[in-house]
Structures are given as structure tokens and as C-alpha cells.
Amino acid sequence: MNIAPTRGSGIILSAIPFVLIALIYILGSAERRAANPEDKLLPPISEMAGTTQRLATQPDRRSGEYVLWTDTAASLQRLVLGLGISTLIGLAFGLSVGLLPIAGATFGTFVAVISMIPPMAVLPILFIVFGLGELSKVVLIIIGVAPCLIRDMSIEVRGMPREQLIKAQTLGASTWQVAIRVVLPQIMPKLIKSVRLMLGPAFLFLISAEAIAADVGLGYRIFLVRRYLSMDVILPYVAWITLLAFVFDFLLGLFARKAFPWAYTEEAR
């Protein structure tokens, strides 16, 4: 418990699981191909690399588009819109519910109940109400992410020391000034942490919506080629989605540390 790895050994230790998974996959792929040269379940890494290169650098014969980048752009547009709107809603309503007793009494229980609804259960309703276009996919992300952010932010606001709010009011600050000058700066690091935690569910909602009703996107492509057992497309797409989520998480964490270094002093120690 008291033995901590150094920075160099920590990097090596973190790489071990990935190396083991890669070795297991290579050995499993080689064994299946030796038994059946036409096997599609575990394609060799070289085959997946070739397919990925083709999707990324060669235009599609029918559409003339670069499939990988077209799918990525469509999915990221939906994801960024959904997460961005969810973040604004979560911040505004979470601040209000946590700071204003009337807002908390009115919306607190409602938000808690809404956050318990499985977003995938309302997906058919969204398609009926908003159609099969972009709006329904973005709304699904908002429904899945925003209530959780509102609840997290309201809990964070309520957990702030009351002495800070009382002192600000004693010095003549209005409710608006207390919210903007005292509460908002302190909950921003928590907001970013909550958004980072919601990246996984946001991608899940996005891929699910694209799989059911879309004509472009990462989820659409995965479920399109599954009927052909095209694992040389599916596995690279899954890896690409994972990489995109990791990059989003890394950039948000980097931004939080640069913008709010005081919130990470204990972590740095």
C-alpha cells in the first residue's frame, strides 16, 4: 500500500494490460486463421490496418466521400451539440436548484426522477416526435446527460459552506452576484469532472441512435457492416471511438487543470 511507482515505471505498468490484450488477440487471430483461412471473426492486425487506410484515404465508389472522416465528422457534430447543450442546461438549472430554495423545491424532485429514466427507453418516442433526423439524436444525448449534470451541480452548490454565501450577502452582493462571483467559479471544476464522466454514456446514446436511424456516422457504419461480419471494419471503428473518447477526456482534464489549478493542488501532491 505504501509502495508507489515512479513516473517511468508507472508508464510501463499502464502499458502492460494493452500489450497483453494485443498479444492475446494476435495469437488468437493466428490460430483461427491457421484453422480456417476464411475466418472473419479475428482478422489480423495487418488486414484491419489496410481496411482502415482504405476507408480513410480512398473515396467511396458510390458517394465519393472518405468514409471514415465523413462518419467521424457526423458523429462528432451530434456529440458536441448534445454535450454542449447538456452542459449549459446542467450548469444553469443545477446552479438555480442548488442555490435558490424555491427552485430546489419546485424542480429538485422532478430532476431526480427524470434522471432515473433510461434514455434508451424513450428513443422510440423521440423518433416519433422529432423524426429520424439529427434532432432526435441530439435530444437523446441531452435527455441522457443533462439531468445527471443538473443533479451533480445542485448537490455541489448545496455542499458549499454557507458562510461564504452569507459573507457575500453581508458585503452587499445580490443573489445574481453571489451566483456569478462566488458559486460559479467554485463549481466549474466539478462541472468539467461531471462532463468527463458523462462522455461514455453520451457516446453510448449517440451510437445507439445512429445504429437505429441514420445514414452516416460511426454507429451507423458499425451496424451496417455487421451483417457481412466485417470485423476488419467493426474493430477499428470501436478502437477509433475509444480513442476519440480518450482525447475528449484528456483535453477536458487538461483545460480544467490550466483554468482551475487550485482545484487540483491536492491531486498534484
According to DSSP, the number of beta strands is: 0
**Which shape, going by the Cα principal axes?**
globular
Count the DSSP helices.
12
CATH architecture of the largest domain: Orthogonal Bundle
Characterize the main sheet.
none
The low-pLDDT segments are none
| CATH level-3 fold name of the largest domain | MetI-like fold
**Average pLDDT across residues?**
90
Tally of structural domains:
2
Give the ordered list of helices and strands: HHHHHHHHHHHH
Query: Percent helix among the residues?
Result: over 70%
Rounded to the nearest angstrom, the radius of gyration is: 23 Å
Strand composition percent? under 5%
Instruction: Please report the distance between the alpha carbons of the first and last residues.
Output: 17 Å
The CATH fourth-level homologous superfamily of the largest domain: MetI-like
What is the class of the largest domain in the CATH system?
A: Mainly Alpha
Tell me the structural class.
Answer: mainly alpha
